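Folded chain entry
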Amino acid sequence: MGRRAVLAGMSALLASGCVAARPTVPAAPIAPAPPPAPSVPPMYFAMPEERFPLPAVDVSKMDRRYWRTDVDYATQHRPGTIVVDTPNRYLYHVKQGGRATRYGVGVGRQGFSWAGAAIVAYKREWPRWTPPDEMVARQPALEPYSIANGGMDPGLKNPLGARALYIHQGGKDTLYRVHGSPEAWSIGKAVSSGCIRLVNQDIIHLHAEVRDGSPIVVIPDPSMEHLLVG
């Protein structure tokens, strides 16, 4: 058989499908790309000029609905009033013309919450923290920072953060504060021992806007048991 006949025979076999084709290996599934991390808006940039330089807020750990924003806000409270909407984890600073600046907040754990009407007696930058005696009794490890020992020095690890507003009622300190926190993950949750926390960049913004003597109204959360109403 000549070379031409051999080639013709092979072509016939291929055409008839008698030659097994190499099996096709299925392509490995492509894992979906992770969603891009949210970009940090300028209001949450690092603040290196602070007494204790602040890092940028990790906004990936903070639900976007709790980011600071200006909103329409119909209320009977006069401009300058702080309204803490505990059930929805918002703080509103009432402005003129039916507007308010809204901040996301963390609130008191169940059993350690506070609500009522009071005033911001005064405010402090980079405050000292002195846990009340009742807290020290529950957590003896806090004894070095007790009132008798002068409290904790200001700084990035201080639980009051970069700023604090001190809430008084009837001329007496309620021992509750509106204060800063580096823990962005805690905003929108009930985690603190009664105080109202904002990320540090937000408390710095609020601190600059609030005046001593401003009224504050903290709305109770009906889902929390043993609520202490002032």
